[in-house]
Design a protein that fits this description.
2 copies of one chain form a homodimer. The first copy, chain A, is built from 7 helices and 9 strands. In chain A, the strands form 2 sheets. In chain A, strands 1, 2, 3, 4, 5, 6 and 7 form a 7-stranded mixed beta sheet that branches. The termini of chain A are far apart.
Chain lengths: ~250, ~250
Amino acid sequence: MEGAKIYLPSLSLDCVIFGFHENQLKVLLLKVKNARQWALPGGFILKNEDVGKAAERVLRERTGLSEIFLQQFNVFGKPRRSDANFHRQLLQKDGVEIDNDHWLFQRFVTIGYYALVEYSYVNPRPDNFSDECTWRDINDLPELMMDHSQILNKALETLRAHINYHPIGYNLLPEKFTMPQLQRLYETILNKKLDRRNFQRKILSYGILKRLKEVQRGVAHKAPYLYSFDLRKYHKALKEGLQGGW
Amino acid sequence: MEGAKIYLPSLSLDCVIFGFHENQLKVLLLKVKNARQWALPGGFILKNEDVGKAAERVLRERTGLSEIFLQQFNVFGKPRRSDANFHRQLLQKDGVEIDNDHWLFQRFVTIGYYALVEYSYVNPRPDNFSDECTWRDINDLPELMMDHSQILNKALETLRAHINYHPIGYNLLPEKFTMPQLQRLYETILNKKLDRRNFQRKILSYGILKRLKEVQRGVAHKAPYLYSFDLRKYHKALKEGLQGGW
């Protein structure tokens, strides 16, 4: 098998790419050819390749996306998470000659990566093994193959925990934004409504925002203030947590 | 080779077990037989074994420790992190017949786990491949094999970032403790002095402590207050972060 010659055995990686745009949270999925299921963009590690670089390459090859900051978040290592039968059926439908030692029939431990991007900036394209590569709404997901919905849920849980103590929004919002825009970003990721006054009090207490002298134009009555991130404090809070280090 | 028959290829795991006791932070290390280097307790994953269970088994077999809550924290996947020459020399010194296909000569991607325990509660013992299994002071470490000092440093960085937004101390301090005792735990992990008043103000603001009616006995002048953790709030903060969820 080609796979066995060029890739590390037993190891794969899967990427959960969340996309935010106009108050919607989506995730990038590939429609598996010859099956009704969808899949996370994933792949294997070349025998002499750095694991992090492999994740970047896999994402680029399968979706056309590059320069996305991928964060390793969890290893999925249950013995029965690989599904040889599923792969056997796909190969049969594709007319591939089947050998019980086929590369895809082994047990794979998979390394999960995630990212959050502004999805109007990126233009995904499918690879040869998929019919489609599309942003799907997080609240209306299709059936996923193997344990990919577990991987997706764990990534979402990690993202939601992350924003409890780290800032978010840079590269997702315009450079100047209003408090309601920022609040809707949080509400979209958390999938719940937040109290306007509590949100404003809390986010301002972290000191990562600068209130600008200008206000939003084209608004009839009381024009809302515009804010931008104080990038020095934003990056400090990314590193140390929102309430600062000890 | 025996290894190739029973273990998943290409994958290993390493455990960084931090121990706290009487204001010292230590790490559990094994002295490698026939070499001057020390190593983290590590090992391999059986072909049909859950990865998390493998970490528990490896730690138990190599050190005698069980029921330690291991937290997966990072995958180390540089192509040249394995060191075939180092292993070749060890095997030579041990009189093992050497085969270039030896199990240990392959490239391993390793999964890092860490834990923090009260080290007087645990009694480590070495396995057959080590001369010693000992708690070593974090500020006075011996030479470590391969990339084990990088793995250790990354675990320490993860632990220090973790306590910026999660509570710590339960199972490390007595049930009732004074504010100075709690402060010294933080100072020991962070390896720096903290301002007494700032520390007290900040830790009290998180609402995870209960001030008890009793004071510490046997103290000459002003007896310090005793505290215990409010476990409901402590566990909530473990999950959502110290300043609470959005």
